[in-house]
Amino acid sequence: MKKILGDERRHLILNWLKEADSPISGNQLASRTNVSRQVIVQDISLLKAGNEPIMATPQGYIYAKETSFSGERRVIAVKHTKEQIAEELTILVDHGITVVDVIVDHPIYGEITASLHLKNRFDVEKFVKKLQTTGATMLSGLTDGTHLHTIEADTSEQIEQAIQVLGKAGFLI
Q1: Could you tell me if 77 and 50 lie in one domain?
Q2: Which carries the bigger pLDDT value, residue 34 or residue 108?
Q3: How many domains does the chain have?
């Protein structure tokens, strides 16, 4: 397989991301272009520096298309341990909620946000497995488990029901 060079590779990556209905992993992009994953990371950085709205999620890269989202969006404050992350996220996605991101308020760096875009149990299981296999620290580990999530749902009722269940489980702050 021929290695695809610089500008041509970045052009292909951008088109693939724009056309994709789901995230594309760095490894998949590296395989398609016959370069290392590190080269893809650098390419993504260059594309983002050129004002392309590319976001990195636990599932891979996505192109942040402008959407006409007409549902409900809210930020919730929660606290839990690493062992409870699957329970918290599953409660949310089981109520038809998309967990858009996680936000922590760091005492030195201020607000730190990471994209999640978890929509279903499969996404949650993949995310939790990646946490376990990499041994990575959750952002909320920086704030003793306290963090915020931006969440989206089609209706406010879905959000209200999920919040009630989170409260009963002891996750709400």
Answers
A1: no
A2: 34
A3: 2
Q: Is 149 annotated as a binding residue?
A: yes
Residue 45 in any domain: the answer is yes
The answer to the question of whether 147 is labelled as a binding residue is: yes
Is residue 117 part of an annotated ligand binding site? no
How far does CA 10 lie from the centroid of its chain? 22
pLDDT reported for residue 65: 74
Q: How far apart are CA 1 and CA 146, in angstroms?
A: 47
88 annotated as ligand-binding: yes
Mean pLDDT of 61-66: 82
Check whether residue 55 and residue 119 sit in a common domain: no
Confidence bin at 48 (pLDDT 50/70/90): confident
Residue whose tokens read 């109520």: 95
Domain that holds residue 59: 6-63
Within a domain: 1? no
Helix (H, G, I), strand (E, B) or coil at 67: coil
